[in-house]
Amino acid sequence: MAPRTARKTGSTRNKRANKRTNKRTNKRTNKRTILNNPRTATAPATTNNTSTTVAGPTIPPIASNTEEQEPGAWAEFVSTYSWGRGKKSAAFQALRAMPSRRELLVRSVPHWDAKLGPAQSMRALYNRIITMAQNVESALMQIKGELAHNRCCSCQRDNGPWSRCVIVRNHDGSPIPDMPLACANCHWNREDTRCDYDPRPHVSRAQAWNRSSHGGVGQATTVPPAAPSPVDTRASSGVISSADALLDSPARPSPESAAEWVTESIDTLQLGQQDGEALHHYRLVMEDLKRVALEVLAAREEAWKVEQDMKNAEMLEPSLLGEVSAMQEELASAETQVLEKINELLARVLAA
Asked: Where is the stretch described as Disordered (predicted)?
């Protein structure tokens, strides 16, 4: 066995120690590392009454409430903070220029309490917003948009982080170019097509992410043109526009149902020459009719899902069959109620 070499000199030991130190200190870092590093990130507050600083920005306390509040600290923070993601999009720029209407409030429901918890809410919400451009736009939409007349089905199921169903539209209700068609909650995490206010067929999150790589999801520039105004104001014809764009979709079934009946009824209505007041009245009535038609579409989509479940009944547990049958009965009742509402609205149009 060869004898051991002489002990290393002090100079050699110091060089090796310095080399090991340099390897430890020269690690590459990124924003996610900084946010999750307890040495560099200030610990979040234990209550919602104080702000916390996370990797630069001072994050205000977040509140959960079902009632609207005047724009506050979070509205100011989201509207003025220089977000790294999304700031190049046309929707982001347009939303930033709009006035704030309300404070940003999160849902107070168990699954969101578990995600954001009172001790982590500020930092956790901030970390979720910065993950993608659509989440930044979603927060801005919630602050800047207007309350939806009817909450979409997704918001009724407590999907999305925000407490209210908010959409962004022109004063006449028409879509804004480059702006998401879905509500703020459904635009969160690129789930636009699950929203009742987005007329496109529903796609899975994986499909939405794949589609977003080719230009984005849920924005007016990436979908077929929106349905025309319900009333054609050209004096030459004065004919109510068809609702085909709303009622026809390749991903939904087309049985003999209230939706087709609505289409045929609208196509047969003629306005002729009317004064401005009557034309405005027709416009309001047809806006109501369009909204009801969208509700029919939502009910039809749910019925289609139930039908698919029934076809796969052999794969379902016996205990679920009764629930599926009960759901079908409820949808049939809902469609009957919608049909009655459509009859009432068409009667208003013909009587005006």
From this structure: 1-57, 209-236
263 and 215 in one domain?
no
* Domain co-membership, 274 together with 215: no
Q: Do 117 and 164 sit in the same domain of this protein?
A: yes
- Ranking 8-22, 237-251, 259-273 by mean pLDDT, the lowest is 237-251
Q: Please list, in sequence order, all residues whose beta carbon lies within 8 angstroms of the beta carbon of residue 163, skipping any fewer than 6 positions away.
A: 64, 65, 66, 105, 106, 107, 108
Q: Cα 193 from chain centroid?
A: 8
Residues of the domain holding 327: 244-351
Tokens describing residue 303: 């019925």
Same domain, 116 and 183: yes
Q: Are 220 and 181 in contact (CB under 8 A)?
A: yes
Whether 267 and 242 have beta carbons less than 8 Å apart is answered as yes
| Same-domain pairing of 209 and 292 | no
Gap between the Cα atoms of 135 and 166, Å rounded? 14
Is residue 81 included in any domain, yes or no? yes
Residue 116, token pair as written in the block: 């954001």
Say how far apart CA 204 and CA 111 lie, in whole Å: 21
DSSP structure class, residue 87: T
Q: Is the pLDDT of residue 272 over 80?
A: no
Q: Report the C-alpha gap between 207 and 230 in whole angstroms.
A: 31
For residue 330, being part of any structural domain is answered with yes
Asked if 268 contacts 300 with a C-beta cutoff of 8 angstroms, the reply is no
∠ at Cα 337 (334, 343), nearest 5°? 145
| 56 and 197 inside one domain | yes
Per mean pLDDT, which range of 86-90, 225-229, 299-303 is the poorest?
A: 225-229
Query: Are 198 and 249 within one domain?
Result: no
- State the DSSP code for 178: T
Q: How far apart are CA 317 and CA 324, in angstroms?
A: 11
Over the stretch 87-131, which tens digit does the pLDDT of each residue have? Answer: 678 888 889 889 999 998 888 765 555 555 554 467 777 888 888
| pLDDT of 140 strictly over 60 | yes
Domain total in the chain: 2
What is the band of 4 on the pLDDT scale with cuts at 50, 70, 90? low
In a domain, 186, yes or no: yes
Residues 131 and 252: their CA atoms lie apart, in Å, by 32
Domain-located, residue 235: no
